[in-house]
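Researcher: I'd like a candidate sequence for this fold, 716 residues long. If you have to choose between options at a position, lean toward the conservative one.
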């Protein structure tokens, strides 16, 4: 019934909105070029894809960053269905359509799925982004992890002409020590067929304050690290070479991020506050190096060939969090001394390697312009997490993966496009033996010691065969309807299961085979309408997704469980050029979901807030340019409260952001204000992460107050 109402309501809204457009098309026929969407791997354009695809240009992102927004916040405001940013350097609770998001950079995942610890949007400099492609719904195009969709960040290639760009930005709030600054430098050069691009950036953030002018804590999410007092350096080199049918792209990146935490956080207050207890742990850190090489050879005997090879090496340190209502489980000094081990702060080490081969073969015997995309993916993940003195905090793991895939895109006549594909994947997981250190659990009866546990590893295999099938029907050259079925595969955070290992009473060991998570396959059905003409773009869709092994983290008991679940929703996107110098738009999304928490066969329990922190989001925006070069922009961003009887109530969140630019000298002065009215409110995504078991309420975290930004950018 819910899905039926969504289908009826959204389809009616889309058809009513586009009805006058059909008449307009007859008077003003327009042909527009389209971007090839790299995130689907087939060379397809948006109009031929039977699902919701969104392209956010780098200029849209950087305009919002210049106002004082982070990359994760700018993206959540622009992408319907993406949960609000939580205000930290991590991605906790920032789901897409209520499920996990696979974040790729140039088609490569830099975070291992074996131990979720997502900071990709915090360590990447926004100035290096060419565009961001969002493919929504469950998909296995790039392997395991995209049950809610893919966010593929496409970085900039060397320009055709020599160019140097320098940009600096400053921002501050109404509070001491809040001044933040950023500096970015890039240089593009070309020598014959070879192009080179060099990027260097440094940024430093100061203190952060809420709408009441109260200092926000540096670690609001229990060990994840906040968004303040961070120093970040990035360096990247991109190379492009092409000659005839040959093309080679190379990208090398390295970065370093460090957060200095001065005081511990009090998680028992509403919202959480800074204590007067000096922080005794090591700084929060993130260091990474990556290499990505892509070779293309057009017009081989079998079609267009693409080979990609990559490597990433990342070290991530979390913050030391005191035991308390938001940190119920902690590592102790010994089995008899239940004080917190001062060296138990965690450091995660991940290395990933991979190579993929993609071939796009014309199959004209099926039909004109029909293409079969097929290939092979090989990958390897190595994961360790240790204390500061080198003891394992989870079982060291190595995973090898191999996958074969085939995707057919077949135009049928002038109006119909058929898309169908299969992917078969095998994961070989090797889990080492390890000893989970002595720990303690805070309960209503007091502190209970947890003796060390020997986790017995082994070798395990996971297999998955997933598919997709979809149709696009072109009503007119500018308007089409689409519908499809797609599947995604995900192996949940394996490391979390070993880190939380508890033996049965009277035993001191547990086998990984008894606690290992089940692989999750998500099925998604989607129906939508898409329109693109000279002045207006519309995308309206509804979807319904199911899984038998959905993953739920219970913040009150610090446990992870799997059960059957259903997620449904609707999205609407509108971009309208009122005039050549004035545009406006709206991004709307609704999402909800339930699970079978007691395994009785009925999907009747609302999914927790950390999966769906808000059921409805809306962004309304407008941009205006003036003849003297001045540009002004503004947006209203709203996230609705979530209020279900068995869950903590999350409040509405509302922000007004404004910004603009004006040419001065050879460059451009940029300016902006986020949270213009300095509204005091909680951050719904951050407040969804933890529950205080003593009160049953959310561990509530305030949103950042007003921030004023100014900058200058010049290219020569």
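Model: Candidate sequence:
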């Amino acid at each position: 019934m819910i899905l039926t109402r969504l289908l009826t309501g959204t389809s009616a809204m889309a058809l009513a909105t586009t009805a006058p457009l059909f008449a307009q098309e007859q008077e003003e026929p327009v042909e527009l070029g389209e971007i090839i969407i790299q995130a689907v791997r087939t060379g397809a354009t948006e109009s031929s894809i039977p699902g919701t695809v969104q392209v956010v240009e780098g200029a849209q992102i950087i305009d919002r960053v210049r106002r004082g927004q982070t990359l994760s916040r700018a993206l959540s405001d622009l992408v319907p269905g993406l949960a609000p940013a939580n205000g930290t350097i991590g991605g906790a609770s920032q789901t897409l359509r209520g499920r996990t998001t696979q974040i790729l950079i140039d088609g490569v995942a830099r975070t291992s799925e074996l131990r979720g610890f997502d900071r990709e949007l915090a360590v990447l400099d926004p100035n290096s982004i060419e565009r961001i492609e969002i493919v929504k719904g469950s998909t296995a195009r790039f392997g395991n992890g995209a049950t809610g969709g893919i966010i593929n960040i496409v970085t900039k290639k060397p320009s055709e002409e020599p160019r140097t760009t320098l940009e600096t930005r400053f921002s501050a709030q109404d509070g001491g020590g809040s001044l933040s600054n950023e500096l970015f430098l890039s240089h593009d050069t070309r020598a014959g067929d070879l192009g080179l691009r060099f990027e260097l950036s440094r940024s430093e953030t100061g203190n952060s304050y809420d709408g009441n002018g109260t200092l926000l804590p540096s670690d609001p999410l229990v060990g994840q690290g906040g968004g303040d007092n961070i120093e970040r350096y990035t360096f990247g080199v991109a190379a492009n070479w092409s000659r005839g049918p040959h093309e080679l792209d190379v990208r090398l990146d390295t970065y370093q991020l460090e957060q200095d935490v001065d005081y511990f956080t009090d998680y028992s207050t509403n919202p959480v506050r800074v204590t007067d207890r000096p922080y005794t742990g090591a700084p929060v850190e993130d260091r990474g190096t990556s290499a990505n090489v892509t070779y293309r050879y057009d017009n081989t005997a079998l079609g267009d060939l693409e080979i990609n090879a990559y490597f990433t090496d990342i070290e991530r340190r979390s913050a030391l969090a005191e035991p308390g209502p938001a940190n119920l489980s902690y590592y102790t000094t010994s089995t008899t001394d239940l004080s917190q081990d001062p060296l138990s702060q965690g450091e995660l080490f991940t290395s990933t390697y991979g190579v993929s081969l993609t071939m796009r073969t014309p199959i004209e015997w099926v039909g004109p312009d029909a293409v079969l995309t097929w290939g092979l993916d090989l990958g390897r993940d190595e994961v360790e997490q240790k204390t500061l003195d080198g003891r394992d905090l989870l079982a060291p793991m190595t995973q090898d993966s191999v996958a074969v895939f085939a995707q057919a895109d077949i135009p049928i006549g002038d109006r119909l496009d058929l898309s169908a594909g299969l992917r078969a994947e095998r994961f070989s997981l090797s889990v080492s033996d390890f000893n989970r250190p002595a720990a303690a659990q805070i309960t209503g009866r007091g502190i209970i010691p947890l003796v060390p546990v020997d986790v017995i590893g082994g070798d395990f295999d996971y297999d998955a065969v997933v598919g997709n099938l979809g149709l696009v029907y072109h009503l007119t050259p500018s308007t089409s309807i689409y519908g499809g079925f797609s599947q995604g595969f995900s192996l949940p955070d394996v490391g979390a299961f070993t880190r939380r290992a508890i033996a049965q009473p009277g035993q001191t060991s547990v086998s990984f085979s008894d606690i290992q998570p089940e692989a999750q396959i998500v099925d998604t059905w989607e129906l939508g309408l898409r329109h693109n003409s000279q002045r207006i773009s519309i995308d309206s869709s509804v979807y319904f997704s199911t899984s038998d092994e959905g993953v739920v983290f219970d913040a009150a008991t610090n446990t992870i469980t799997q059960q059957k679940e259903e997620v449904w929703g609707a999205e609407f996107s509108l971009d309208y050029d009122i005039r050549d110098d004035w545009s406006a738009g709206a991004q709307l999304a609704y999402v909800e979901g339930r699970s079978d928490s007691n395994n009785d066969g009925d999907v009747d329990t609302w999914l927790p807030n950390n999966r769906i922190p808000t059921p409805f989001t809306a962004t309304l925006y407008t941009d205006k340019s003036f003849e003297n070069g001045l540009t002004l922009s503004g947006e209203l961003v709203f996230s609705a409260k979530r209020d279900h009887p068995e869950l903590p109530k999350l409040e509405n969140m509302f922000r007004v952001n404004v910004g603009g630019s004006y040419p001065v000298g050879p460059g451009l002065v940029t300016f902006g204000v986020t949270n213009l009215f300095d509204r005091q409110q909680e951050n719904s995504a951050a407040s969804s992460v933890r529950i205080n078991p003593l009160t049953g309420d959310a561990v509530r975290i305030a949103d950042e107050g007003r921030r004023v930004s100014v900058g200058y950018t010049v290219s020569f």
